[in-house]
Amino acid sequence: MHRRLFFFVTLVIALLAQLTIAPEIRIGVIKPDILLVLTVCWALVEGPGQGAIFGFSAGLLEDIFTTATVGVSAFSKTLIGYFTGEVRQRIVSKSVIWPMLIVFIATIVQELLKFMTWTMVGVEEMPPFNFGVIVGLALFDAAITLLIYPIIGRLAARDERALMFQ
Amino acid sequence: MINRESRHQRVLIITLVFVCILLVTAYSRESEGGIFHRLQRFSMDVVSPLQKGVSKALSPIKNAIGFVTDIGTARSERDRLREQVKKLQDEVDAGKDAIRELEQIKNMFKVKEERPEWDLMEVTVIGAPANVWEQTIQIDAGYDDGLQQYMAVLSEDGSLVGRVIVCASNSSVVQLMTDEKSSIGARLQTNSEMGIVKGAGNAIRMELLNQDAEVNTGDMVITSGMGGTCPENIPIGTITEISERRADLSIGIEIQPRAKLSRLEKVIIVLGPAPKTLPIAAGEGG
Fold first, then answer.
1. What residues form the membrane-spanning segments (chain A) (predicted)?
2. What pLDDT was estimated at residue A138?
3. How close A66 comes to chain B (CA, Å)?
4. Domain ranges, ordered by start, for chain A
5. pTM for the complete prediction?
6. ipTM of the assembly?
């Protein structure tokens, strides 16, 4: 019960942060994907199954609370949550560099998945593909991981189920 | 146990991906009035006041971040503008030079118009007086260009500057009329009273032949043509001061040269009519 509450509180805070804070701290056109960063952090704490559920929930909320095609973010974040959870089982280091690196890669993968899905679905008003922006976004996400990861890790550690946080 | 959990997770991911595909398909096929579109509009209505409030609350932080991020842009902008200012300054300088050159050419044409019988040549000043005792300039034309000793030298507005005293093949030395060794036959424009204009270092003085002649400050002094070196009627300068009669009954007349002798860049040589005789010796007539 405690874990579920933690899950929902984290999800709601992440959604609110994404909708209100992220647009305010953008650099140029690049605003951080806080929901993705939290999906990766959650998956690193809880593993692939929980990571996939968190990613699906976060992505679906993102789709509903924006004007994006419903299901696209849910799809990409589900896969990222799942595979990050899988990767977590192979990492033994407690360094924050790993989550940052995973977030960096995950951001690029997510954006590529989004473009792929939009193309397959045939979305008419698709934004122009700009890899520079994607790398910028990945760097921004990796940077805010430095702030978010220790918080999630500390909160999760209280439940004694976290395996790899300080 | 592990295998069962792993299988459970695989089922879960496949299910979630399948749900996502269904959602994407359903959303893509529904109209603007469909349930997902309506849900999106509703959620936007719910969230927008919150976004507005947070935006307001975060505006000081946003401004601070904006300030920091603007520094880099401002620096590159500053460098670009500096570069642009330099370029424009160069263009302005080039424009000023062009205007000055045009003025010089216009002045020369004016002199030429006034004296159609004269053969004139414009030359560039390439050297200033070497010391305070020699009031001379060096020009970039000599024998090869048709120059001869004692030819009259004019400023761009046609006023007298001096005369050529040394001629080499490609350059010459011009003695300014302020040189203490310079003596030029002159007359007052108002009453044609004759005299000699002599150099006095940084100034020039006139000595009238008729000591009782009427002379006033502001009178224009022009060349008389006497001595045969300088053609007549070339403006020399304006009388600025008339001193008391001296013991030898002569009066000292100070003249302000019309030509700006300290700022000569181009001068005009009177090639023709060529000088007929030697100049008046500085000691003569005094």
1. 64-84, 96-117, 129-152
2. 92
3. 6
4. 2-157
5. 0.50
6. 0.83
